[in-house]
Amino acid sequence: MNPRMTVRGKVERFGDSQLNIVVENVEELRSFYREHAPHRNLDWMETAEPRFTVSKRRFVARCRAGDDVAYLFELRLCKDGPRASGLNLQVLSTA
Asked: Which of 14, 36, 38, 42 has an alpha carbon 20 to 30 Å from 80's alpha carbon atom?
């Protein structure tokens, strides 16, 4: 089984077909990537408010900007490096 993790945070729209989750559990996410993808560049997580991009239509359609969500993903090891693949998105509270 591929390693899995849940990212929690508020939704920001990113165009019509994607959204960003402003990550609240940043340290947990950093630890996860250090353990399961140690060679992956983590510069994107060093910003003041790291964002996790979601592009699966079925997940994008479930929420609006400002909603609090929990996004379960798994890390798949591909030939060009690890890739996050969404498994579930749950709206915890609406904006």
From this structure: 14
Give dist(CA 59, CA 90) in Å, integer: 9
Cα separation, 81 vs 14, in Å, equals: 24
Q: Which residues contact 85 (CB under 8 A, 6 or more apart)?
A: 73, 74, 75, 76
Euclidean distance between CA atoms 1 and 94, whole angstroms: 32
The residue length of the chain stands at 95
CB 70 within 8 A of CB 6: yes
Of residues 8, 40, 11, the one with CA closest to residue 24: 8
What is the pTM assigned to this prediction? 0.88
pLDDT, tens digit (0-9, with 9 covering 90-100), for 31-61? 998 898 777 666 666 667 888 899 999 999 9
